[in-house]
Write a structure and sequence with these properties.
Distance between the termini: 52 Å
Oligomer: single chain
Number of helices: 13
Helix content: over 70%
CATH architecture: Up-down Bundle
Length: 347
């Protein structure tokens, strides 16, 4: 949606202001910055899967103990998502995000120097606590700067950077682990994540948050900067909080109008997470247990990681042509069918 000089009005809400400004250079740059973050998040989270065979060997772990090492980051994410999501409504998206990145980067880096399996579990749990906030805050910040037109496509493209991060960490595992072991892999992943704190320093605060926090003048300045970057005119009207019926609250998810969608999406996300992370985190260990060489194991994982990229790009194209629901159902059905075939072929 392009924008020209806006007609004066008493006031408009933040989303209408973003819609009038339209999509342009600012959002493309923000997509790149947020996308790099998603890639780093993927690399940090999935690095443990590639490190797990070496961790088992070094500490002499059984299957159950190895499972605790892998699951610790996910438990941290569960706790972090709730904590950071609530906190960001108080301190802002930008500040909250910088803190979450610092937490998962620092503790992810420290994981490389863990002297015992107990220390490793604690460090991975705290790193996951930061990751649990970084992912939703990054997604929220990007969403709050996007016009409603074609929003689905750009959010899918944002998520496609997850595949980029998966390919990068799989490639690094192939190059580093066979020659140097698992610790350098975790160190490289954590150190790279630290760069995000510097990269993100120029990202402005969400105008939606600023208005909600009672700072409409700051929100107007941010929107003016966005319009300037896009070569359009900022709305002349005063910026007000979005008008709604509580849909933006946790309780709003259980309103009669959206309750069924909430339950369906939660079940879908639970199933996707179970299948996806079960595959990528444990597959290197499973292949190693079946006698695959380290190089062959990581090479196979790299192929699987790269296969995500055309999936993301095709979904970004289809989501605006087929619609959200049809695209989601089609890709879930295909994923389920091929996962069953994969399981049968692996026997």
């Amino acid at each position: 949606m392009s924008a020209t000089a806006a007609q004066p009005a008493a006031e408009i809400d933040v989303q209408e202001a973003i819609d009038r400004i339209g999509f342009g250079r600012f959002q493309r740059r923000l997509l790149l910055v947020c996308g790099v973050t998603w890639a780093a998040d993927a690399a940090e989270l999935l690095a443990i899967g590639f490190a797990l065979p070496g961790i088992r060997e070094e500490f002499g772990l059984g299957t159950g103990q190895a499972g605790l090492v892998a699951a610790s980051a996910f438990l941290g994410m569960l706790l972090g998502a709730t904590f950071w999501g609530t906190l960001s409504d108080r301190i802002g998206r930008r500040t909250g995000f910088q803190w979450t990145v610092a937490v998962f980067a620092v503790f992810g880096l420290l994981s490389a120097f863990a002297p015992s399996v107990e220390a490793l579990i604690v460090l991975r749990l705290v790193a996951g606590f930061g990751l649990g906030g970084a992912l939703p805050l990054d997604f929220s910040l990007m969403t709050e700067f996007l016009p409603r037109e074609n929003r689905g496509r750009w959010l899918v493209l944002l998520e496609s950077f997850w595949a980029v991060g998966t390919v990068v960490i799989a490639t690094l595992a192939l190059l580093i682990v066979p020659a140097f072991g698992w610790r350098p892999l975790l160190a490289v992943s954590g150190a790279a994540a630290l760069l995000l704190v510097w990269i993100r320093r120029t990202v402005p605060e969400s105008p939606r948050y600023l208005v909600t926090a009672g700072r409409p003048e700051e929100a107007a300045r941010v929107l003016a900067d966005v319009a300037r970057a896009n070569g359009t005119a900022a709305p002349a009207a005063a910026i007000a909080a979005e008008r709604g019926t509580g849909a933006g609250t946790l309780a709003g998810l259980w309103r009669p109008q959206v309750r069924r969608s909430t339950i369906t999406l939660w079940i879908a996300w639970f199933s996707i997470g179970l299948a996806y992370y079960g595959l990528f985190v444990y597959l290197p260990t499973i292949l190693a247990d079946r006698g695959f060489s380290v190089v062959r194991t990581y090479g196979y994982s790299l192929v699987l990681a790269a296969a995500q990229i055309p999936g993301y790009l095709s979904a970004a194209w289809l989501v605006e042509r087929w619609g959200r629901r049809r695209t989601l159902v089609t890709y879930l059905a295909a994923s389920g069918a091929f996962t069953v075939l994969f399981a049968l072929a692996a026997r």
